[in-house]
Amino acid sequence: MFSSLARLRAIAFTFSSLAILSHALEGSLFTSSVTYCAPPETLLIQQFDVEYFAANNSVSFNISAESVDSNVNVSASMLVNVFGIQPVNITIDLCGILNGALCPLPQYNFTGSDSITLPGSISSNFPSIAFIIPDLEGYAQLTLTEVGTGDVKACVQATLSNGLSTHQRAVEWTTGSLTLFTLFVALWQSCFPTAILPHRLLDLVNLFQSVAVSALLNLNYPVTYISYALNFAWSLSLFSSGDDSMQGAINNMRALTGGGLANSTSSSAVAFVNRKLSPFNSDSTSSSSASISSLSSLAKRTVESSLLHNIQQRDVAVVTSESDNVLSAGIPIYVSTINIATANAFMTVFLCTLILIAIALFVFGFGWLSLFAMERYGIGREDRRIQIRRAYPSWIRAWTLRLSSVMFTPIVVFAFYQWTLNDSWLSILFSVIAFLGIMSAVCYPCIVVIRSVRRSEPSVLYTDSFLLKSYGSLYTQYLPSRYYLFLPLIIVAFSKAIIVAFISSSGMAQVILFLILEIALVFRVLLFRPHKTRGADIFSAFLGIVRVVCTGLMIAFVQSIGVKPIPRYAIGLVLAVINSIAILVVFFNLVLHSGIQRLWKRREATSSSSSSTSSSLQGSSNIMLEKNVTSSPKYPSSDPFGRPRNPTPERNVPLDPEINQPYSPSSPTATTTDYASTRQRDSESTNFGSVLPRRWSFTPLHTPTESSGLDHTPPFESTLSRTSEEQIEQASHPHA
User: Fold this and answer.
1) How many CB atoms lie within 10 A of CB 703?
2) Which PANTHER family did the record assign (predicted)?
3) pLDDT tens by residue, 546-556
4) I need a labelling partner for 436 at 20 to 30 A (CA). Which of 63, 86, 379, 503 fits?
């Protein structure tokens, strides 16, 4: 059954992969979104699909439009921009195609499709890599110009894609499943306050969050890096529901509480990206800049309200350099790409936080019910139940602190950003409540830990059971003398939130400040070496260096520097590879600390012990065979296949009360007398040698009588000779 399901899944995955890669394998580029690059005057576009096939060097288009002016003859200019390069820039006479059906433009809804073969000189301008790389940055622009007057009647832009992207659902599910697996194992290991896996869980989530937060700056990111960072949007509690029920509820709430910003839509957000940013890269060439400037002047013309109403019905937006619906770099582009409006970002995080709190309360309540059932029905040992009941509140406090640490970055970042929008008053109120709550949940344990150390000493963090079990997740990974080095992590996270939200006007300042903070964290590890093991210091330094390198490479994304699109795209791929390597390193570290190595060691120990036991039994059997002795147990209490059991005494003789007494200092005379009587009594009752009194049991090399004399013989030799003589004498006269 399992093998058949595995085959079906493999087949389904294969067909889905083939469907995704079909366009890339065919060597084609197609439109992924459509917008007006100027308010239309003559032509209203309902559908605009263009696809280029590299195999036969042809362009196929399918246009559905409606003309509102009569007797208008236009020519079409086609411009294709890929990474700032214009491989196609041609003008088509519409009267020469479709048997003249478009000359003049008909005053009704019409649909036309055709395929045009391009000259060979144009196909040579298309880079072959454009068909195989993910997240292609390019667009096609169609401009309709009236024949004779040269007036622009319509302008349409459509982004291009080859069907490949670094944003994959499989990556989201894989990273989420890895986090859940680590969470379950960490829940089990957290019964021990000094376990390392709960700390590695926080390192994993912090790594995912650092990748996501790095895409929130005011930089001209390549599309491939934004798509890659969207794989970790869930770590910031940014979940986009398929039916948009959550986003619709947030839209209604904002509309009722004074929200005036744009709502979330299910359409592609790439069409609303600022034309100076990727994937449009309009400032790359002078021709495209001139075209944009001319279209901007055209956008200032008045448009009839009926036309605007028709445009809204067809869901084709007008996006120009002067439009107010343009998405800026940073949070707007990042959240809008997953169909979350900019004004809905915080409320999405807030609602997801409430869901997480509900899940945590359910788990904690289930634990209390389990303890109650154990007490009610007497499940388990009583001492074990008492131990669990006493430790459970501290366990809840510890995991509340860990969950607060996970939610600290998303709540603070988007709460600060919500304050800059001046939108819904209810959203602002919720952001204030969430900010105060998360700051209290994180800062109060820090204050308790620092105050306890100031009143006593760092060792109290490990000797005080309450502090260790409740707030040990802050400092148990560090040396006792370096307990305070958890504070820089919180300060850096808080500072990054301020940089993202309040310094969004300058991308260069954001990158430089991020770089300073990351370098400070690396020096924190290299200078103080705070962890308990060298491997932990190396691991923490590695993650810090990765963040420093990635932040330094992002300087190339600053718009004022003006790096060309292709180098920026290459740097984006490098960043994705570096972060992926860091995630793999963290994954292997999680495996090492998950307890799997204990199973390997246990198997090795079991196999080695069994092999040694078998070899010893084989050797003893060989010896007995050589001596012709049968292997029958001498004592019934012995076990030839395991550890010998303690023999049961044949008789239980009570000890003499005179002997079974604690040692008390006495005079030498009394000691000699007691020893003499004891020796006489023991000589009559046993033939196993003389019994030393308790006072002299720790110094067997000298007897009481002889130690008082001047005996110059070596202690061991004299004692051995005396003991042998006494044994021989008692053996020859047992009843003397």
Assistant:
1) 19
2) FLAVIN CARRIER PROTEIN 2 (PTHR31145:SF2), INTEGRAL MEMBRANE PROTEIN (AFU_ORTHOLOGUE AFUA_7G01610) (PTHR31145)
3) 999 999 999 99
4) 503
